[in-house]
């Protein structure tokens, strides 16, 4: 399944990029940030960091880690599927994510997502339709992120970094669908951990060659500028179909791990 052709794609000039930054990003308070009175980040930056307050924060962090370990520690072999929260049912990338979730569930994997709408919902929906277990690790945000109705169970996190630890710790592969800043954050964190030998072997797979072409071209440009070495350029595999992604994941698993899978 392929995305529809984009016929009016327009590359931004430096001036257009600057104008967009001035209009949307220069503001001290963006309209989609967490409300000030509920934001842990705002409290962290604005309040005096006394030892007592730091201890309270550490306790909250520890409790959230403990919750994640308790809830996810007994999962079977799992893959994490990332992607944009903005795709709608019937759109090409939504349906591609749905087929990907379904295919991995049928292959015997538990499907993990960020638990929200869009590509995350689609992956959970596909796994649900296949009859496979799937979980949403939801982050509390004012827009776009509410638990979708297809998860077997949803776990709520306040801290992005704890949530990402859980998605890495309990997954044997990252499957990255087309997405925006949040998806790129998760993609590059995984790539950095692999590059620095903090995790691995760990398949990192991008689905949708047309969408990821721009990333591939930008990495080539960065290599020309000297910030990528030749062996770091292909840090992720780009595939077109869920079947290709499954084949790659299975190829890298130990035999006893493969035998623990229960295909549906």
From TrEMBL:
<keyword id="KW-0203">Cytokinin biosynthesis</keyword>
<dbReference type="InterPro" id="IPR052341">
    <property type="entry name" value="LOG_family_nucleotidases"/>
</dbReference>
<dbReference type="Pfam" id="PF03641">
    <property type="entry name" value="Lysine_decarbox"/>
</dbReference>
<dbReference type="GO" id="GO:0009691">
    <property type="term" value="P:cytokinin biosynthetic process"/>
</dbReference>
<dbReference type="InterPro" id="IPR005269">
    <property type="entry name" value="LOG"/>
</dbReference>
<dbReference type="GO" id="GO:0005829">
    <property type="term" value="C:cytosol"/>
</dbReference>
<protein>
    <recommendedName>
        <fullName>Cytokinin riboside 5'-monophosphate phosphoribohydrolase</fullName>
        <ecNumber>3.2.2.n1</ecNumber>
    </recommendedName>
</protein>
<dbReference type="GO" id="GO:0008714">
    <property type="term" value="F:AMP nucleosidase activity"/>
</dbReference>
<dbReference type="InterPro" id="IPR031100">
    <property type="entry name" value="LOG_fam"/>
</dbReference>
<comment type="similarity">
    <text>Belongs to the LOG family.</text>
</comment>
<keyword id="KW-0378">Hydrolase</keyword>
């Amino acid at each position: 399944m392929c995305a529809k052709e984009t016929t009016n794609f327009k590359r931004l000039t430096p001036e257009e990029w600057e104008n967009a930054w001035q209009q949307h990003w220069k503001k001290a308070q963006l309209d989609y940030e967490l409300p000030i009175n509920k934001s842990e980040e705002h409290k962290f930056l604005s309040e005096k960091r006394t030892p007592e307050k730091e201890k309270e924060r550490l306790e909250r962090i520890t409790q959230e880690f403990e919750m994640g370990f308790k809830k996810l520690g007994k999962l079977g072999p799992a893959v994490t599927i990332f992607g944009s929260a903005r795709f709608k049912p019937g759109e090409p990338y939504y349906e591609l994510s749905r087929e990907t979730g379904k295919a991995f569930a049928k292959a015997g994997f538990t499907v993990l997502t960020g638990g929200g709408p869009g590509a995350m919902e689609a992956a959970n929906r596909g796994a649900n339709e296949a009859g496979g277990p799937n979980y949403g690790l939801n982050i509390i945000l004012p827009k776009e992120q509410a638990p979708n109705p297809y998860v077997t169970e949803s776990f709520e996190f306040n801290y992005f970094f704890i949530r990402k630890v859980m998605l890495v710790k309990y997954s044997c592969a990252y499957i990255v669908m087309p997405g925006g800043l949040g998806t790129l954050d998760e993609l590059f964190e995984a790539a950095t951990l692999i590059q620095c030998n903090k995790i691995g072997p760990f398949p990192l797979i991008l689905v949708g060659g047309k969408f990821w072409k721009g990333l591939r071209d930008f990495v080539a440009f960065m290599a020309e500028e000297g910030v990528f070495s030749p062996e770091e350029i292909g840090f992720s595999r780009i595939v077109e179909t869920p079947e290709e992604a499954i084949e790659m994941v299975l190829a890298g698993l130990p035999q006893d791990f493969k035998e623990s899978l229960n295909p549906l």
